[in-house]
Amino acid sequence: MYSKPPTIYIGYDVKEDSAFQVAVASIKKHASKPINIVPLKQEALRRAGLFKRSHYNVGDQKYDCFDNKPFSTEFSFTRFLVPALNQYEGLALFMDCDMMLRSDIWELFDTICKDDSAVWTVSHNYNPKAVRKMDGQIQESYNRKNWSSFMVFNCSHDANKLITVDDVSVKTGSWLHAFGWLEYEQIGKIGEEWNWLDDWSPDYINAKNVHFTTGGPQFSDWKPSRPIDATYTHEWKAYQFKLTQEEAMKTL
Known about the structure:
This protein has 252 residues and is α/β, with parallel strands linked by helices. 27% of the residues lie in helices and 19% in strands. The chain has a six-stranded mixed β-sheet. A three-stranded antiparallel β-sheet has the order 3-4-5, with no helix packed on it.
């Protein structure tokens, strides 16, 4: 059905490099087969002429020039370039960098290959409790919030050819994050265990992918809200410790 093996695109922000490194390590630890992982770096995309969106700052907060709404990461919009980056072929997963896989990602790919949706997401009905997140960034509410934080694209699907490189630079954030180029029935469903949100998702769900959407252990002043969040934070820090040790060994 798909002409090329899946690729995982991970949003990259320099202030969350440690989160990105943990996300990569967790994917590799559990993957039963090799997987191609690509960091989605805005600076490189701009150099290649693939992203031209502009913004302005008020203090440390970024605001989009098209709709004057706040956004928090360098990959808030570039995630929607994935079908084009994958040459409109095959399967591709986008995931935020503040995630930690606890299961084999091939399990997900093998399951959704039986479906012919354009995009698969966890369809959260998410209303964040706090008005601020991460390192003081504004927590914006919008339709289908967090659906786009973990999404598998069927890049070959004709509907995904309707979102172009130019669209990603000029369409409003609300249109992009609400999958404005798709009909509702073209959005496939993934179980919540694949985008388990800290301080939100039920603790009886065994998370296959933990999303530290309120911030995460990469920020020194962040703290987990619930015992289950603390458990997953401990797992995250174990990855970080191992990565730090491996990096130190390289200098010897």
